[in-house]
Amino acid sequence: MITRFALAGLGIVLAAGLTAAAATAAQAPTERRAAYQPTLKASKTTVVAGQKLVLSGRVKPAAKGGTVVLQKRIEGRKWAVEKRLTMTKAGKFRYVDKPSTPGLRSYRVMVPKAGKVKAGTSKPVKVTVLRWVPLTQLAVRAIDGTRAGTTVSIGGKQYANSVVSNAGAAKGTIDWNLDPSCTTLRTRFGAGDDGDADATAHVTLTGDSEQLFSGQFMLTQSESRTFDVSDVFRLAFAWSSTKAGVLEPRAGAIATMAGPELLCAI
């Protein structure tokens, strides 16, 4: 005959068994979910082509000597392996890239499965790569009395891909619509060596009708300038030539925007 004490003991044993089973069941999903958790950061969000870009991060849990696969995706393309890295004892990794293709790109890292730890992938980081391109490579919207893409000499120094006044013209204009990714313009304004010694070149640069620069130059004179064109859509160069003692424009000076370059993601 089963006594009260025997039944009570059996209840305790059954309860302990159920508790252990429940604990095991609760732990199982945690073990199945265990995965590497890599993080990644870039030293810059915008970089000029050819410059250093440092990509670094950390992996948890750390596994000294473990593999970290750095992947890259240039806008419009698929993910591709950039480099296989090795993490330190602390789970850290580092890579230096020198991107050359302009435009938007993304990086991420993936840590392969190892033992009971599942593979893990970081969130992507985005980087915009800019490069210097000649302004004269852009399509001209309107032009009058001006040439673009020619070589000019100022003070004996030559500048390729320049914008200059036409010989025999007394004034002129040229303008372009800039790509939204363009951030900076650098150029040199001056008077070309083929102009007359008694002539003066008057030049003006505007961005969306706002004056960015205005100056006048005689033979061999010039000035180098850099402009922020992040918010400029319509860039326009206007010029005129005058002679000593004459108020109205007279041909003679070679108004010049020498070797203008834009920093863009194109």
UniProtKB/TrEMBL annotation:
<keyword id="KW-0732">Signal</keyword>
<feature type="domain" description="Glycosyl hydrolase family 98 putative carbohydrate-binding module">
    <location>
        <begin position="144"/>
        <end position="229"/>
    </location>
</feature>
<dbReference type="InterPro" id="IPR013222">
    <property type="entry name" value="Glyco_hyd_98_carb-bd"/>
</dbReference>
<protein>
    <recommendedName>
        <fullName>Glycosyl hydrolase family 98 putative carbohydrate-binding module domain-containing protein</fullName>
    </recommendedName>
</protein>
<dbReference type="Pfam" id="PF08305">
    <property type="entry name" value="NPCBM"/>
</dbReference>
<dbReference type="InterPro" id="IPR038637">
    <property type="entry name" value="NPCBM_sf"/>
</dbReference>
<feature type="signal peptide">
    <location>
        <begin position="1"/>
        <end position="25"/>
    </location>
</feature>
